[in-house]
Amino acid sequence: METPEVNNTNEVETRGLNFVEQIVADDLAAGKNGGRLNTRFPPEPNGYLHIGHAKAICMDFGVAEKFGGTCNLRFDDTNPVKEDVEYVDSIREDIKWLGFDWGDREYYASDYFPKLYDLAIRLIKEGKAYVDDQTSEQIAAQKGTPTVPGVDSPFRNRSVQENLDLFERMNRGEFDEGSRVLRAKIDMASSNMHFRDPIMYRIIKTPHHRTGTTWQVYPMYDFAHGQSDYFEGVTHSICTLEFVPHRPLYDHFIDEIADESYRPRQIEFNRLNLTYTVMSKRKLLQLVNEGLVNGWDDPRMPTISGMRRRGYTPASVRNFIDLIGYTKYEALNSISLLEHAVRDDLNRVATRGMAVMDPVKLVITNYPADQTEMVEMENNPEDPASGTHQMPFSREIYIERDDFMENPPKKFFRLAPGGEVRLKGAYIIKCTGVEKDADGNITEIQCTYDPETRSGLPGSMRKVKGTLHWVSAAHAVDATARLYDRLFAVEDPSAHPEVDFREMLNPASLRVVEGIKVEPFLAENAVPGRPFQFQRIGYFTADPDSRPGALVFNRTIALKDSWEKAQKK
Ligand code: ATP
Ligand code: MG
What we know:
- It contains 14 helices and 25 strands.
- By secondary structure, the chain is of the alpha/beta class.
- Among the domains are: 116-220, Glutamyl-tRNA Synthetase, Domain 3 (Glutamyl-tRNA Synthetase, domain 3, Alpha-Beta Complex); 275-354 and 471-569, CATH 2.40.240.10; 360-469, CATH 2.40.240.10.
- A seven-stranded mixed sheet has the order 10-23-24-25-21-22-11. A seven-stranded mixed sheet has the order 19-16-17-18-12-15-20, with no helix packed on it. It has a four-stranded antiparallel sheet with strand order 4-5-6-7.
- Strand 23 (532-534) and strand 24 form a beta hairpin.
- Adenosine-5'-triphosphate is lined by residues 42-44, 46, 52-53, 55-56, 76, 239-240, 271-272, 279, 281.
């Protein structure tokens, strides 16, 4: 048996920590950086955030929260060609929605352009950087391979004077884009390819969304990121595994500027990859630009804004991230796990209501034509504090077309001629007949009701096998439902590089159903983001497009996971 340890010191509780938290706890315990903890989340404002970014956000902000540190939001805006303020705004909104706060610590890599430029000048003067007049193709061709050393550029040994002159003129706009770059002079034979004279600066003439035309040269990621961390006082720079080979270069440039009192440290974890979707911003942008989805916040997109619009809750996204955890090796996570987390949270918080997706009229022939009564519906059986609401009942109601069968098989527990079912929250009814049109389609179902079986009366205890949802025909409100399915028809689109990813899109990822019937309470409370469970159907929320008189509901997710089953058939 394990004896629980008594923790009577000020030491940080280290059990149950993930490996990044463990590193942070150790650094804090060792008194590194004066006991300070400062992380950062560094998005490039070149697209909307997706669920992969949510994983990074939960790590960066989460670890800071856990150990009483702070987390900066730093826009990594070093490439004006692809960046835009629209993205800056959306990123802010998405982080807030997830429930994290950067306070007044909002920074931009572009704030450090002057300091980075000065550092570049210093490195040129120290003979540690040079201007290369070759094209990027020529430079790439000289890089060598991990086993074959690279070849020196013919411009590698230019004089300091010439390098200074050329770099300054690059920044004044005297040269064309692509005609020259500034490179660090490190080691063309290094076993780490990133050390083979990496590019520090390139010429870009597109105006920057914050600095306008002040700069004509822009720093590369490797020359900007670590130094930005340092300038900001970041202690733990947590990123994804593809940056492991960049880490020595990160440390190399930090060595150029740091003193002993403090240095930032890069730590890497595995990216989030999800089945039936793509996570590349380039591909997501393409889907948006080519109209293959309806914008970045299309509810089928793996973006945070798409998930919000679809009705996913922040808690469900965070719970999912907790569930998958952080490791040192790449994996592909099942979207079913995310959907499980969504159902789990919605079951707790969604308000129950009645909606009929494929209505057929049902007339209760022994119920007075001019009568309406109100029946009481629980808002959420999972949450007693959520109360109840009233729903009208009358002689004519709608039920789901497939809840009735004229010639039912043996185990059909819904409505059939001569059979009985309970109308949820109301009465037990018995089917006495049907009407059909010339083509044999059922246009009306006739029933009688038993007045003794109203909810709350002793007769309601009578056992019947089926319970149906329904809405009163005279009171029902018409609405449109948008039903979403997986964006891609293929489990791992990235596993098929030979196929254009657009050809793997699921053609049935959006189905629009007009003329669904919802109870008045749903119509009155159709506020985007408010979660509902349409009883027996699934979870829904109003779309921002929804208007009184033109209601639109997004299906967040069906009640049960039918996909996995269907795939196995
Ligand atoms: P780009 O190719 O445009 O750089 P990116 O997905 O890396 O795309 P960034 O804006 O640079 O986008 O990412 C910000 C942060 O989010 C980085 O620290 C990055 O490591 C992290 N991140 C991005 N994608 C994922 C993912 N799928 N899983 C976990 N973290 C991610
Ligand atoms: Mg990136």
